[in-house]
Amino acid sequence: MIRLRSGAHTEGSESGDARETEQTEAKRDGKLGRQNDLAEPETKDVPMKSHGDTRNINSDLTGDPKSAPSAVSNSFNYTKGSHKGLFSPWLWLCLKTVGWAVFIVYICVPTLVKTNPWIQGSIVFFNILRWPPFVDFTRPQDLGLNATRNLYLEHHNVRLGVWQVLPVSMAKGHLPSDDYFEQALGDIKPIVLYLHGNSGTRAAWHRVQLYKRLALMDYHVVIVDYRGYADSSGSPTEEGVIQDARFVYNWVKARSKDSPVYIWGHSLGTAITTKLASCLCKEGTPPTGVILESAFTNIREAAVHHPFSTPYTRLPGYDWIFLDTLDANNIYFESDKSIGDITVPLLMLHAEDDIIVPIQLGEKLYKIAQKHRPKGNPVEFISFAGSRGYGHKHIHMAPYLDVILRDFIL
Fold first, then answer.
1. 60 is catalytic
2. Is 354 labeled as catalytic in the residue annotation?
3. How far is CA 266 from CA 206, 258, 282, 286, in A?
4. Catalytic residue among 220, 305, 306, 392
5. Which long-range contacts (CB under 8 A, 24 or more apart) does 47-51 make?
């Protein structure tokens, strides 16, 4: 039954309106059926209007054919919008970030390294990292090194920053004079010349802790920052840092008299120590003994096993891009070729959980030393369990380190 909107109608007009409405609905149903062939809108999406608006609806659906494309377009817009969640702004941001990271790591970095070989030299020595910052090297007392003096030694237009730490038995309530420090080196107590690794300075925390421990064992400790490190002048090269170490060693020997002199190298410092000790042994002026902490065979193998190389070792042309640029900088540090010339007692220390210089490299160098060293010259390799967490630079924390050193240092 159709409700009359307004006014009075005759029975005939009422039946006429009913027929007209039925015809209109039939037309609408037919047109909607044809429209469904073009698109698949749901029936509920079509707004229901009053009969007074029937003409407008029919004109939208059955009028000019130009209206059909708009319906198709609307249906495609609906379908596209229903999948918008798969391409949210966060997903696009993640994809862009990953894309840029891959581009930088695998395209930009290799290109820069190959076209600028000096970058590899900077990475090997990493002397740009002066940690800890804001250190006054003229005041080692600020770091708890009370019986310590700072001095500068010059050779070949290079100024080297040096610390000299007195044994605990020679420490006084006040800082002694420079003459006292120099004369103290000839008091027969063992002297340890410490050659640190790359990055940082002689003021690095783990290094300072080792100096303190050696001083408590009543040893002299002399530490040098190579050229380009800390407050030393110049720029580091393989030949240059070895010359620096040799100059400081000669300075110590000139004042040590009958005091035994040991060279202790850590990480990159082991390669410097090995080369220096081999030259000294060949020349007949060897040190009393050599200690290598976290040693490696040569710089190429050390580079391959370094964590920074992990993303690139499987990259085609890795050797050509990264390792050959080391040769271009004249950086070799081939301890495996030098260690056989060391004829004095040799002690090697390495932590099993060292991820910077894996213990496998230290063991490999140890086997080479065993094979090539003259008989009767002992070489000892001591490893520290990974569960202790000493890693690359905290062997100084080992509680039984004193016992190991006292057995080795006379």
1. no
2. yes
3. 11, 26, 22, 19
4. 392
5. 51/21
Please name which of 246, 364, 343, 227 lies closest in space to residue 298, comparing C-alpha atoms.
364
The residue with tokens 């496998």 is: 360
Nearest to 323 by CA among 310, 336, 304: 304
**Tokens 């130009």 sit at which residue?**
66
The model's pLDDT over 174-186, given as tens digits with 9 standing for 90+, comes to 889 999 999 999 9
Q: What pTM was estimated for this model as a whole?
A: 0.76
Query: Shortest CA distance to 203 belongs to which of 155, 260, 140?
Result: 140
State the catalytic residue, choosing from 267, 294, 335, 338: 267
Report whether 328 contacts 383 (CB < 8 A): no
- Amino acid identity, position 88: S
Catalytic annotation present for 267: yes
Q: Check residue 108 and report its DSSP letter.
A: I
- Measured on CA atoms in the order 212, 217, 220, 222, is the torsion positive or negative? negative
Tokens 């010359």 found at? 243
Tens-place pLDDT, residues 78-123: 444 445 555 688 888 888 899 898 888 888 888 888 888 888 889 9
Q: Which one of the listed residues 335, 338, 354, 396 is annotated catalytic?
A: 354
